[in-house]
Amino acid sequence: MSYGYSLSLVSANKAANAKSLGVALGRVCIPAGISVNQLAQAFGVSRMTVYNWFQGASRPHPRLAPQVAKYIEELKKK
């Protein structure tokens, strides 16, 4: 199921630093078809925040970083 990720977002995610936690999140969520809205609700942030994470424009707040890292690991197991 496609959630309509734009080509520019996908390209920005691919070009961004993979060491960034938000970029890593994007790299597992985009192919898995997990919506930005779903992630925003799960982490209690805005959709724009998730888009910024995916592009490497900002990083998850330190209090959210463990949750985000755990989410990424769980997705990789699937």
Summarize the structure.
The protein is mainly alpha-helical and 78 residues long. Helix content is 65%, strand content 0%.
Unreliable stretches covering 5 or more consecutive residues = none
What is the helix/strand order? HHHHH
Helix content: 55-70%
The major beta sheet can be summarized as:
none
Report the β-strand fraction as a percent range. Answer: under 5%
* Strand-pairing-aware structural class: mainly alpha
End-to-end CA span: 16 Å
How many helix segments? Answer: 5
Q: Give the number of DSSP strands.
A: 0
Shape: globular
Radius of gyration equals 11 Å
Count of spatially separate domains: 1
Mean pLDDT rating = 93
Describe this structure in words.
Helix 2 packs across helix 4 and helix 2 (21-32) runs parallel beside helix 5. This protein is 65% helix and 0% strand. It has one domain. It is mainly alpha-helical. The chain has helices spanning 7-15, 21-32, 36-43, 47-55, 65-77. The two termini are 16 Å apart.
Secondary-structure map:
Elements: H1 7-15, H2 21-32, H3 36-43, H4 47-55, H5 65-77
Notable traits:
78 residues; 65% helix; mainly alpha
